[in-house]
Amino acid sequence: MAFTLYDIDNAPTESAEQLQDSQKAFGFVPGLHKVLAASPETLKAYKLLHDLFQKTSFNNTELTVVWQTINYYHECHYCVPAHTGIAHMMNIDESIISALHKGETLSDEKLAVLQATTRAMVDQRGNLSEQQVADFKAAGYGEQQLLEIVLGLSQKVISNFTNHLADTPVDEPFKQFI
To answer: What mean pLDDT is predicted for residues 141-170?
Structure first.
Protein backbone atom coordinates (compact mmCIF):
# COMPACT_ATOMS: atom_id res chain seq x y z
CA MET A 1 0.00 0.00 0.00
CA ALA A 2 1.60 3.23 -1.12
CA PHE A 3 1.34 6.26 1.14
CA THR A 4 1.47 9.88 0.06
CA LEU A 5 4.98 11.21 -0.40
CA TYR A 6 4.70 14.81 0.75
CA ASP A 7 7.08 17.55 -0.23
CA ILE A 8 7.64 20.98 1.25
CA ASP A 9 4.88 22.50 -0.91
CA ASN A 10 2.05 20.07 -0.15
CA ALA A 11 2.92 18.80 3.34
CA PRO A 12 0.72 19.62 6.30
CA THR A 13 1.79 23.01 7.64
CA GLU A 14 3.24 21.48 10.80
CA SER A 15 5.46 19.18 8.70
CA ALA A 16 6.60 21.61 6.01
CA GLU A 17 9.21 23.29 8.24
CA GLN A 18 10.58 19.91 9.29
CA LEU A 19 10.88 18.89 5.64
CA GLN A 20 12.76 22.13 4.95
CA ASP A 21 15.16 21.16 7.75
CA SER A 22 15.57 17.73 6.15
CA GLN A 23 16.31 19.35 2.78
CA LYS A 24 19.01 21.50 4.40
CA ALA A 25 20.53 18.57 6.29
CA PHE A 26 20.60 16.00 3.48
CA GLY A 27 20.43 18.04 0.30
CA PHE A 28 17.13 16.29 -0.47
CA VAL A 29 14.05 15.23 1.49
CA PRO A 30 14.39 11.52 2.34
CA GLY A 31 11.42 9.39 1.31
CA LEU A 32 10.89 8.31 4.91
CA HIS A 33 10.46 11.95 5.95
CA LYS A 34 8.05 12.49 3.04
CA VAL A 35 5.88 9.63 4.33
CA LEU A 36 6.14 10.64 7.99
CA ALA A 37 5.03 14.19 7.07
CA ALA A 38 1.44 12.87 7.06
CA SER A 39 1.76 12.85 10.85
CA PRO A 40 3.71 15.90 12.02
CA GLU A 41 4.03 14.44 15.51
CA THR A 42 5.48 11.17 14.24
CA LEU A 43 7.93 12.99 11.97
CA LYS A 44 9.00 15.18 14.86
CA ALA A 45 9.34 12.16 17.19
CA TYR A 46 11.41 10.24 14.65
CA LYS A 47 13.79 13.14 14.07
CA LEU A 48 14.11 13.82 17.80
CA LEU A 49 14.88 10.15 18.55
CA HIS A 50 17.44 10.15 15.72
CA ASP A 51 19.15 13.25 17.14
CA LEU A 52 19.11 11.87 20.68
CA PHE A 53 20.49 8.49 19.61
CA GLN A 54 23.39 10.20 17.85
CA LYS A 55 24.24 11.93 21.15
CA THR A 56 24.55 8.67 23.11
CA SER A 57 27.81 7.16 24.31
CA PHE A 58 28.08 5.06 21.15
CA ASN A 59 30.66 6.05 18.54
CA ASN A 60 29.71 6.17 14.85
CA THR A 61 30.59 2.52 14.27
CA GLU A 62 28.53 1.39 17.25
CA LEU A 63 25.59 3.57 16.16
CA THR A 64 25.79 1.89 12.76
CA VAL A 65 25.91 -1.58 14.34
CA VAL A 66 22.75 -0.90 16.32
CA TRP A 67 20.89 0.73 13.41
CA GLN A 68 21.81 -1.88 10.83
CA THR A 69 21.28 -4.85 13.12
CA ILE A 70 17.72 -3.68 13.72
CA ASN A 71 17.16 -2.72 10.07
CA TYR A 72 18.37 -6.12 8.88
CA TYR A 73 16.35 -8.03 11.47
CA HIS A 74 13.21 -6.05 10.60
CA GLU A 75 13.92 -6.66 6.87
CA CYS A 76 13.54 -2.96 6.09
CA HIS A 77 13.92 -2.57 2.32
CA TYR A 78 14.46 1.19 2.77
CA CYS A 79 16.64 1.48 5.88
CA VAL A 80 19.21 -1.21 5.07
CA PRO A 81 20.40 0.56 1.89
CA ALA A 82 19.91 4.03 3.40
CA HIS A 83 22.06 3.23 6.45
CA THR A 84 24.59 1.48 4.22
CA GLY A 85 24.99 4.77 2.37
CA ILE A 86 25.04 6.72 5.63
CA ALA A 87 27.70 4.35 7.00
CA HIS A 88 29.88 5.17 3.98
CA MET A 89 29.37 8.89 4.67
CA MET A 90 30.36 8.27 8.30
CA ASN A 91 33.57 6.56 7.12
CA ILE A 92 32.72 3.24 8.78
CA ASP A 93 35.11 0.41 7.93
CA GLU A 94 34.03 -1.30 4.70
CA SER A 95 34.18 -4.81 6.21
CA ILE A 96 31.74 -3.73 8.94
CA ILE A 97 29.40 -2.09 6.44
CA SER A 98 29.41 -5.21 4.27
CA ALA A 99 28.86 -7.65 7.14
CA LEU A 100 25.98 -5.59 8.55
CA HIS A 101 24.40 -5.23 5.11
CA LYS A 102 24.46 -9.03 4.73
CA GLY A 103 23.44 -9.77 8.33
CA GLU A 104 26.74 -11.51 9.05
CA THR A 105 28.33 -11.65 12.48
CA LEU A 106 31.00 -9.00 12.93
CA SER A 107 34.61 -10.13 13.36
CA ASP A 108 35.43 -7.53 16.01
CA GLU A 109 34.61 -9.19 19.35
CA LYS A 110 33.19 -6.13 21.12
CA LEU A 111 31.08 -5.09 18.12
CA ALA A 112 29.86 -8.68 17.71
CA VAL A 113 28.58 -8.58 21.30
CA LEU A 114 26.84 -5.26 20.60
CA GLN A 115 25.33 -6.78 17.47
CA ALA A 116 24.18 -9.93 19.30
CA THR A 117 22.77 -7.95 22.20
CA THR A 118 20.89 -5.61 19.87
CA ARG A 119 19.45 -8.57 17.99
CA ALA A 120 18.48 -10.24 21.28
CA MET A 121 16.82 -7.03 22.49
CA VAL A 122 14.61 -7.05 19.39
CA ASP A 123 14.04 -10.80 19.26
CA GLN A 124 13.39 -11.22 22.99
CA ARG A 125 11.54 -7.91 23.41
CA GLY A 126 14.06 -6.67 25.95
CA ASN A 127 13.98 -9.84 28.05
CA LEU A 128 17.70 -10.55 28.12
CA SER A 129 19.03 -13.41 30.17
CA GLU A 130 21.50 -12.80 32.98
CA GLN A 131 24.17 -14.41 30.79
CA GLN A 132 23.44 -12.08 27.87
CA VAL A 133 23.73 -9.05 30.16
CA ALA A 134 26.92 -10.46 31.70
CA ASP A 135 28.42 -10.98 28.22
CA PHE A 136 27.46 -7.42 27.26
CA LYS A 137 29.11 -6.02 30.38
CA ALA A 138 32.18 -8.23 29.91
CA ALA A 139 32.61 -6.64 26.47
CA GLY A 140 32.91 -3.22 28.10
CA TYR A 141 29.34 -1.99 27.93
CA GLY A 142 26.95 -1.28 30.77
CA GLU A 143 23.43 -0.34 31.77
CA GLN A 144 23.68 3.01 29.98
CA GLN A 145 24.36 1.30 26.66
CA LEU A 146 21.52 -1.20 27.17
CA LEU A 147 19.16 1.74 27.56
CA GLU A 148 20.71 3.45 24.56
CA ILE A 149 19.95 0.37 22.46
CA VAL A 150 16.32 0.80 23.55
CA LEU A 151 16.50 4.41 22.32
CA GLY A 152 17.90 3.31 18.95
CA LEU A 153 15.30 0.59 18.74
CA SER A 154 12.56 3.16 19.36
CA GLN A 155 13.80 5.21 16.43
CA LYS A 156 14.07 2.18 14.17
CA VAL A 157 10.60 0.87 15.02
CA ILE A 158 9.18 4.14 13.70
CA SER A 159 11.20 4.01 10.49
CA ASN A 160 11.14 0.28 9.79
CA PHE A 161 7.43 -0.16 10.46
CA THR A 162 6.55 3.00 8.51
CA ASN A 163 8.56 1.79 5.53
CA HIS A 164 6.78 -1.56 5.62
CA LEU A 165 3.38 0.13 5.76
CA ALA A 166 4.16 2.73 3.09
CA ASP A 167 6.46 0.71 0.82
CA THR A 168 8.67 3.79 0.84
CA PRO A 169 10.74 4.02 -2.34
CA VAL A 170 14.49 3.96 -1.74
CA ASP A 171 16.05 7.38 -2.34
CA GLU A 172 18.22 7.75 -5.44
CA PRO A 173 21.51 8.22 -3.48
CA PHE A 174 20.95 4.88 -1.72
CA LYS A 175 19.70 2.70 -4.59
CA GLN A 176 23.25 1.50 -5.27
CA PHE A 177 23.16 -0.21 -1.85
CA ILE A 178 20.01 -2.30 -2.41
So the answer is: 98
